[in-house]
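Per reviewer request, we include the raw input and output of the structure prediction for the construct analysed in the revised manuscript.
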Amino acid sequence: AKLYAGGAELALLMRHGLVDPEYLIDIKGIPELGRIAASGSAVTIGACATHHRIERDPAVRARLPAFAYAESQVANIRVRAQGTLGGNLCFNDPHSDPGTALLIHEANVTAANGIAQRQMPLEDFLGEMYATALEPAELLVSVDVPFLPEGWGSSYHRVHRYQRPTLGVAAAARFAGGRIEGVRLAVGCVSAKPKRLRDLEREIIGADIQSARRMIQEKKAYLRELLQPVDDLLGSAAYKLYMTQVLLGRVLEDIGEKKSFKFQVSGFKSETAVPKRETKNLKPETRVSISLTVNDAAWEGEIPVEETLLDFLRQRLDLTGAKRSCESEVCGACTVIVDGLPVSSCSYLAFEADGKSVTTVEGLARGDELDPLQTGFIRHLGAQCGYCTSGQLTAAKALLLDNPSPNRDQIAEWLRGNICRCGAYVGIEAAVLEASGQKIARAIK
């Protein structure tokens, strides 16, 4: 059996035959696992809270800004809408953002087996690549993220390729008179798991920014031995080590200059927690009954548990606008809207849409009247070869539902997970701006 929360990584492993579970145990209906609650000294985040909820939560942004920013950079909006913090930490992919940012808060995790609970530092929970300290019968319940001490600031920088970070560097520090009074440093994605740099932390206490930068440059051998960087498809070991030194200097500089994070979704509405599901039965099922609305039309029936939303739409309803392409949540060609949020239908199990509203590209028009977005795509040549266009349209529609008047940076951030090989990004941006009723600035050469 495999626990199923967001399923963002699990669906990919199942598709490629790397895991073949006999059962999926859907745990999202457990209310405690979806909560985000702030106390006087920490924020407790349930394991099933999605990255999308976490990045927008007011308490997380106010008291854990570096972590909130790291969450906002996870993959793309579709993955963040589906993936959960608990799933991310339990999968423990070395190329991941949240763990690194959590280390500077000295976060703790709670695990339970139905009889007892135990707590441990996140640092101890994360094992080597794709491994954790969870026992076979245990479930990750929550993550407790303490606030930084009074007067401390934080920063997070990353380098990424293919929507996965090549390197992530987090820092928390307090400055007095231009010198470092206290500091925590963490580096992720370079080796098998994120690590604190405690020896370096002790050495740079009392240093100013320039001295700290110089000391970091002198610590290349220390960083190589501690981090043990590896060559992989996302970068060479030498590049990662060099950029680690560069970014360590930058995060400290950010804190010293009190730079604030630039959240692209600062004015957007927040997402509420997933409501508790009614338990229909506890018998294992290979097929499930679902009822949903697709493009304003109701559908009820029985489907296999493992059927993806993409297969459901294309094969059962003959809605072929969503395209099958990368099947790894990267390209965005299969994007559809579920209850207002874009999802990768290739990796979204159809039973997840039970009781929800699904909109595909076919549902944007009203009869013969095209949606303003579709008209804009035509007018500004946002649709060229056309293969990615349905995903671009549905992702952009979800953006406008979330933020009716986005600026250019917000459009770019939201759509960065939808890849257009024709390079029609300028036209796509213009179409979104036009559909939102904004003027389009044109360059004259």
